[in-house]
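Render this sequence as a predicted structure.
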Amino acid sequence: MAIETIIYALLGGILPALVWLAFWLREDYKHPEPRGLILRTFFFGMLAVILVLPFQKMVDALIPGMTVVTILLWVVLEELFKFGAAYLGGLKSVEDNEPIDPIIYMITAALGFVALENTLFLFGSLVGKDIIGSVITGNLRFIGASLLHVVSSGIVGFSLAFSFYKSIKTHVILTITALMVAVAFHTAFNLSIVHWGNSGAMLAFGLVWIGTVLLLLAFEKTKTIQKKTIA
């Protein structure tokens, strides 16, 4: 196995994720999070891919095939592990001290997840000597899967932002609800890709772009949240 293959896969997986990360971090330019916490959260997001794989394999063994239930359970696991990465990375720190911060940490964890996930996909293509396929796969995942994970985690991040100054009960209820919405969005994307062919792919990409626009609007809304909104 050539070291070049590993390097190309790492560069193709991690660099695009870092480009996206730089883009989203600009939304928090006034009071940026400590770079150490951002890097830690990104790393935990990558680690989440490794930790979630055994559980996904268990699901695949129990329910073989790309059934709706299999896809749903895979998505639930991914969203929970991304949330765990964000929590351990920055959400539980004292630096999570303004409404916009949870969105930043959730997106950072998601992009760490994307970085290693994309690396593994590209590595498989490169090992199989499918160079053209790996380039196409990299471009598609740079846009599609990256935005998918960003938007689904952003949904949870926005709920944490919106309930930042609210009661613990409201905070928990909104977080659980947001996780369910994120799972539904993520599952709809995957089902469209797997079961509906080219038309499904077009629909899925349309959904993530709409979600991205809404996430940008959510950032602007979050910047207006004040402590007076305590419930």
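Summary. Residues 3-225 form one domain. The CA atoms of residues 71 and 190 lie 7 Å apart.
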